[in-house]
Design goal:
The protein is elongated. The N terminus is likely disordered. Helix 2 crosses helix 3 and helix 3 crosses helix 4. With 96 residues, the chain is mostly helical. It has one domain. It is built from 5 helices and no strands. The longest helix is centred in the C-terminal third of the chain and has 19 residues.
């Protein structure tokens, strides 16, 4: 599991300020955000996202926030739901 510091080390600001034909738009970055955080992007997509983050403060902030949220959730211990609660949920679902 990654610590909070290493999550943010991947979000360096960079970029030349010039727009390239391979630059992603904000919607594309946000659609790929989870894959990027989970390190499941192909190398080319990773590079394109990094380029966009260097040019777009909104997406850079958004992705940092998402990474922090994911990190917190990953550190949260799993809890077992009591069988009695599960049975109540099943009854509610059956009655709908």
């Amino acid at each position: 599991m990654m610590s909070g510091g290493s999550w943010f080390s991947r979000f360096r600001r960079g970029g030349s300020g010039s727009k390239s034909s391979t630059e992603l738009d904000c919607d594309e970055v946000r659609a790929s955000g989870s894959d990027y955080i989970d390190e499941e992007c192909e190398e080319e997509m990773h590079s394109r996202i990094m380029e966009h983050l260097g040019l777009c403060r909104d997406c850079d902030s958004w992705l940092k926030s998402l990474a922090q949220t994911v990190g917190i959730l990953r550190e949260t211990p799993e809890m077992q739901i009591p069988e009695s609660t599960m049975e109540r949920i099943r009854r509610i679902n059956r009655s709908k």
